[in-house]
Amino acid sequence: MSICKNTVVYFHYDLTDAQGTLLESSRDGEPSAYLHGSANILPGVETALEDKTEGDTISVTLPPEQAYGPRREDQVRRVPVKHLIYQGKLRPGLTVQVNTSEGRKPATVVKAGKFGADIDTNHPMAGQTLTFTIDVMRLRDASPEEIAHRHVHGPGGHQH
Question: Which reaction does it catalyse (predicted)?
Answer without folding.
Answer: [protein]-peptidylproline (omega=180) = [protein]-peptidylproline (omega=0)
